[in-house]
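Recall that a protein's primary structure is simply its ordered list of amino acids. Everything else, from secondary elements to tertiary packing, is in principle encoded there. The following example makes that idea concrete.
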Amino acid sequence: MNGRGIAAVAVLAAWGAGLAVFAQRESSRSTVQRLAEAAVRVAPGPTYFAIESEARHVGFASFTTDTIPDGLQFTEYDVREERASGRRVRQVVTHATRALALREIAVSAAAPVATARVLDDSTLLVVRESAAGRDSTRERFVAPLLVPALVPMAIALGPSPSVGDRHAFDVFDPATLRVRRLAVTLAAESTFVVVDSAAFDAEERRWVPAHRDTLTAWRVVEDRVPGLDAWVDALGRLVTLREDAATRQTRTSYEMAFENWRSTVRASGDAVTAPMKTVTAVRATPPVGTLTVVALGLPLGDLSATGRWQRRSGDTIRIVRADSLTQQHGYWLPPQRDHRTAFASTLKVEPGIEVEAHPIAGAARRLRGRAYDPLAVTQRLARWVSDSIRLETTLTPPSALTTLRSASGDADHHTMLFLALARASGIPARAVRGVVYTGDAWLSHSWAEVWVSRDWVPVDPTSGQFPADASHLRLVVGAVSLGQELDRLVSRSTLRVVASGPAPTHKP
């Protein structure tokens, strides 16, 4: 063999060795490593879906991807009308690593309300919230732990999808609040036409397609029945999701998904069978100073019905307006580091409370101005939210940033915006929920509490009251989203006012 032949053999041998090393490296890479590489292609932004059942447009869904400093945030929102149970609302907010693995998740806007957090490489802590209290469990998993909504993305962003491919992941299921193994097969490949923009048809009074996009999608089918059955595009976004024989979600433009559904609900009149959130401003004239209530049928021992301004004796609760506020609040604004550390849980960013978002931080800065007294700043923020945010029924999930931009929302939206502004100003603030007495009825309501005067003091940003008057009966602390479950408890109870008195006319 001459020199050229020897060189050619050497080159081929080196090439073969390189292929072997590459193949070994590829086979030895963990699923986590592959997902981390694939997730670089995840694009932020929302996608919208029309929910149809038995040829009727019954609801709206959205899936939004956002980048956060240490990973990714995914928000699933679903609102629909159901014949048997009326309106159903569900929101799931997932914080994940750059490799799509679950870090923490919040399931809200409908029972069961829960949060879950990854403790280590194999343990998930699940905390269930209810009007009667909370309980926690620990779930074991095999990393990486995903949520079902991210499985299509993990598949599509990996190696080139091919019909017949099989995948399996441990997932935390927000519907059952349990970890389970989700195994799927790519059953088919096809082409779809998707509406990506719409125009309003004045004659039909509906939004119609303005532009369509053609794309390739793969059918992802879970091994068990019933289970996941969806078509997914090359970026892992759902094209269509089949829930059961009669119900499916179809990707489309926002206007066709949401506006057309809302128009259908309004036109049908009696289509909304579930109670709507209370949107009537609660503004007692004059403010109620004291209120004594006998509550029969409520598990008061399991609720947050006792505090400095709300004392309980058996089934009787006496509420007093916090008119004894003084300047001895213990801190000035901006607060010092030790104060921020002590109240970290009520100053932090949470789903729907976007404390660090530039519009929120800027608004808080402008509203606070040169004031350093938390009492004065709280009063200013409460009045501004009440005066500036239009009170109306809103179907979008409560979010401070969305409410600030739309300048409208219900009591939950007012509360979330106030919480974000207060926390951005350095004032510890938390959500509360309960009922408010209007003089002839009790209405479901949410408001806030701030840490001033060395205690938690109620403030109602919907009505602009600080301190909130004694017509507010607090039942739950820390969860605006418990409204539906709490309403069911209250509906089975009896609340009877046995005494009341006006508030003093002086201001705090």
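The longest helix spans residues 3-28. The longest strand covers residues 178-201.
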